[in-house]
Amino acid sequence: MNLRGLVLIALAVSIGTTAHGGGFSKLPVSARAVTLGGSLVSFSDDPNVLFYNPAGIAPLRSLSLSTSYTRLFPGITDDRLSYISGAAVANLGFAGNLGVGVRSFSSNTWKESELVGSYAQQFFDFLSIGGSAKLLYWSTPPPAGLLAVPEDGLSQATLSFDVGAQSTIRDIVPDNDIQFGIFFGDITRPSIAKNGSGDGKLDLRMAAGAAYVSRVYDYTITVHYTVAGETRRIGIGGEFIAMKTSLLDEPVELTLRAGGGGLQASGHQADINGGLGIRVAGFMFDYAFAYQTELLNIDGTHHLTLRYSF
After folding, report:
1. Is 75 domain-assigned?
2. The pTM is what?
3. Most buried of 13, 134, 275, 283 (most Cβ within 10 A)?
4. What does residue 25 show for φ and ψ, rounded to 5 degrees?
């Protein structure tokens, strides 16, 4: 097996699902999510939260857009492993919020794409509930090479659904809040196998998390726990606004972030991540570097995200 194959297997293990179960589409979507331990399940100020908990889009009060690009393991030369994503959330006033997301993973031998439509509503200023419908698509070409066993390539599309909820306890101490989130993903457990085989079913994913938000000291600390099939993963992260200034009469902020996570079972992959965010007016540029502790002699992963709120 070549280096690319080993890395693909390691990626499938690291995100807690198998490749045939649509694992690569579960990779972290945004740079901010990477540095906060791999999830935004308890966050509500970022359009990318629709991939982690559709309830989190409910508090957004203006049109919010985001696009991300990830280059996986630049040291690999026989393939270009990368994925892109985009998200948009619109506020409909009393009718709630609508969100749309898309992401796509690509390699020479495997492609995955996901189109997400989300709706969320906020109740009583402390509870949000949301859901998503997803169109999932996988494809791989037929085996190639002199020793390849002749067989058809894979091309399959299916529907799946996510639901989630969030709650906020405001001013637990003055100007400090706690946000809670819970999420259930792929609740219908669709199969990507053409014959509907149970071996091709997606795992039911469950996640729960909390974030402590200090509005007076400008920092956030978060922890979350994710279950996917038999896999258990914990993540933790934090961010704080390190600098506030202005440029040409526009506000400028520098946010620093760090975090990581790993599977509970010993001997499995973990990650250590760091990054930053630069806000200028309504634009936010996020960068993250992720280092996989079990993949020796492989370069880390770079994540780039650009967000804008009108």
Report:
1. yes
2. 0.87
3. 275
4. -70, -10
- Report which residue type is found at 125: D
Q: Are 56 and 40 within 8 A, CB to CB? A: yes
Q: Among 11, 134, 16, which residue's Cα sits nearest to residue 83?
A: 11
Tens-digit pLDDT profile for the chain (310 aa)? 344 444 444 444 344 333 334 455 567 889 999 999 999 999 999 999 999 999 999 999 999 999 999 987 776 666 777 889 999 999 999 999 999 999 998 887 788 899 999 999 999 889 999 999 999 988 887 776 666 666 666 788 899 999 999 999 999 999 999 999 999 999 999 887 766 666 678 889 999 999 999 999 999 999 999 998 888 999 999 999 999 999 888 899 999 999 999 887 655 678 899 999 999 989 999 999 998 877 666 678 899 999 999 9
What span, in angstroms and rounded, lies between the C-alpha atoms of 302 and 275?
A: 10
DSSP codes, 103-147: EEEE-SS-EEEEEEEEEEEEETTTEEEEEEEEEEEEEEPPP-STT
Specify the CATH number for the domain of residue 161.
Answer: 2.40.160
- Best CA proximity match to 274, nearest among 38, 73, 35: 35
Paired tokens of 189: 């457990």
Please state whether 297 falls in left (phi above 0), alpha (psi between -120 and 50) or beta.
Answer: left
Tokens 């709706």, residue?
Answer: 119
**Structural domain count of the chain:** 1
Which tokens is 310 given?
A: 């009108």
Nearest to 242 by CA among 253, 250, 251: 253
CA dihedral 195, 8, 30, 302 (to 10 degrees): -160
Domain that holds residue 40: 3-238
Domain presence at residue 201: yes
